[in-house]
């Protein structure tokens, strides 16, 4: 188990890595269709995980644990990543997609309250509310060029699929996969994701790829920066923390992504954008500083 000092730095590193996912996708998608990119990414990641498993020799889960991990993978990876990519591909503005998926902490808190019996304090609810307003300020008011709120029914369904996938998958990971080794459990998650993405690419895409250096570099970053490093950090945070607290860190992704886009693509932030980043940060602070308490004590 990591030391408490190391655990304090893990969320910061996770947010920085997770925010680069949208940047990596922006670099990769001009050269291949979304489900094809995700399928290739998953198969490379599976190969990396097999090497790590052979080196560290962790314990493999039972068949029940493997099924739980594959279910979580279908939600956290396939539904979330596939839903986001498909929503943008179907015509929804990237900013609106990020905003909808950014509702995850609110949805996680509500489900944790209704399903898992967690109590949400007033300060936590205030933090969650401030977080969503901060995300909205960054995405809708924070850039010099107006973001078009374009969407249709199909793209909206894809975005909602991503939202519910990452939310329910996070809660299932906490409830059923907490004792499963991170390496072997995540391997089964990626196996499920690879199968789903392959099927979607086979059914709906041409699977043509333009192997340019920029595509290869973006793909490698998506594998080692996101699928390997960020996901292992996420699974570790879920195992060591509360579902609502972990979900609150996703609020920081759109603001950090906006900052990275400003540095890499000169997408300048306005005063509204800077204010939104500050509001979001304070909202996350309120959530993580006020732990969720169970309504009922578990009997031994």
Automatic annotation (TrEMBL):
Keyword line: Membrane, Transmembrane, Transmembrane helix
Q: Where are the transmembrane segments?
A: 7-29, 35-53, 65-88, 94-116, 128-148, 154-173, 185-204, 216-236, 248-265, 271-288
Q: Which residues form the EamA domain?
A: 12-139, 156-288
Lineage top rank: taxon:
Bacteria
Pfam families found in the cross-reference section: EamA
UniProt GO cellular component terms:
membrane
> Gene3D superfamilies, per this entry?
1.10.3730.20
Where does it localize? Membrane
Tell me how this protein sits in the membrane: Multi-pass membrane protein
Family label:
Belongs to the EamA transporter family.
The record's PANTHER family line, in alphabetical order, gives: EAMA DOMAIN-CONTAINING PROTEIN, INNER MEMBRANE TRANSPORTER
What is the protein name stated in its UniProt record?
A: EamA family transporter
């Amino acid at each position: 188990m990591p030391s408490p000092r190391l655990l304090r730095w893990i969320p910061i590193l996770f947010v920085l890595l997770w925010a680069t996912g949208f940047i990596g996708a922006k670099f990769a998608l001009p050269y291949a269709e979304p489900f094809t990119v995700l399928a290739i990414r998953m198969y490379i990641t599976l190969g990396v995980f097999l090497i790590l498993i052979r080196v560290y020799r962790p314990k493999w889960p039972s068949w029940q644990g493997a099924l739980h991990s594959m279910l979580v993978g279908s939600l956290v990876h396939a539904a979330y990543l596939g839903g986001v990519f498909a929503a943008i591909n179907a015509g929804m503005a990237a900013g609106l997609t990020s905003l909808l998926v950014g509702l995850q902490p609110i949805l996680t808190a509500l489900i944790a309250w209704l399903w898992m019996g967690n109590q949400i304090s007033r300060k936590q609810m205030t933090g969650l509310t401030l977080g969503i307003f901060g995300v909205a300020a960054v995405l809708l008011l924070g850039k010099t060029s107006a973001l078009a709120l374009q969407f249709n029914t199909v793209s909206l369904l894809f975005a909602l699929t991503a939202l519910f996938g990452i939310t329910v998958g996070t809660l299932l990971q906490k409830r059923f996969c907490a004792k499963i080794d991170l390496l072997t459990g995540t391997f089964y998650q990626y196996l499920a994701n690879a199968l789903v993405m392959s099927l979607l690419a086979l059914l709906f895409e041409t699977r043509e790829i333009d192997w340019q250096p920029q595509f290869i570099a973006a793909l490698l970053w998506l594998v080692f920066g996101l699928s390997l490093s960020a996901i292992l950090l996420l699974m570790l945070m879920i195992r060591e923390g509360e579902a609502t607290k972990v979900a609150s860190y996703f609020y920081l992704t759109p603001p950090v992504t906006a900052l990275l886009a400003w540095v890499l693509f000169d997408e300048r932030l306005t005063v509204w954008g800077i204010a939104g980043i500050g509001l979001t940060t304070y909202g996350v602070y309120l959530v993580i500083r006020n732990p969720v308490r169970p309504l009922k004590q578990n009997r031994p």
